[in-house]
Amino acid sequence: MANAIATERLRKRFAKWDVDGSGSLERSDFEREAAQIAQAFGKSATSPQARELTNAFVTMFEQVAQGASSMSEEQFVAAAGKLVEGGAERKFDQLLGPVVKGVIGLADKNNDGHINGGEFATWLSAVGVDQSKTATLFQQIDTDGNGELSVDELLTVVRDFHYGRSDVELLG
Questions:
Q1: Which of 19, 53, 85, 153 is deepest in the core (most CB within 10 A)?
Q2: Element (H, E) at 122
């Protein structure tokens, strides 16, 4: 069972994805987030980068939903909670790594595998983070101070937030 902080963060994640307020998550909720991110970067939902991100989100939904077409908040917290239990970091990274790579694939204008502060801000704005907070968040995550974020840096902060080891919140 996930710890109390991790559980609360999963509840917040559920609320963020349940845009229509239906009380359940469906595949379309995950596709919608991918489309929002693609649109923020001026990409068509059918572009290769947007399709990669959409596929990563859909795979994540399918893995967490375990064959169900929708999940209530309790079902989501129970299933996703298994990813934030002690010792499940490898499973977490396997599931969320492709999403992080997909985001960087959309955001990375010079194709160097990293995103800069402006690209990071565009992504976070697309998922509802207040634009005035993005520079501070970027500085907190850019631990080596090189002005860029790698897949590993982003995945680490997403994992650490959901595990309750960091308060750097990228949910908006």
A1: 53
A2: helix 117-126
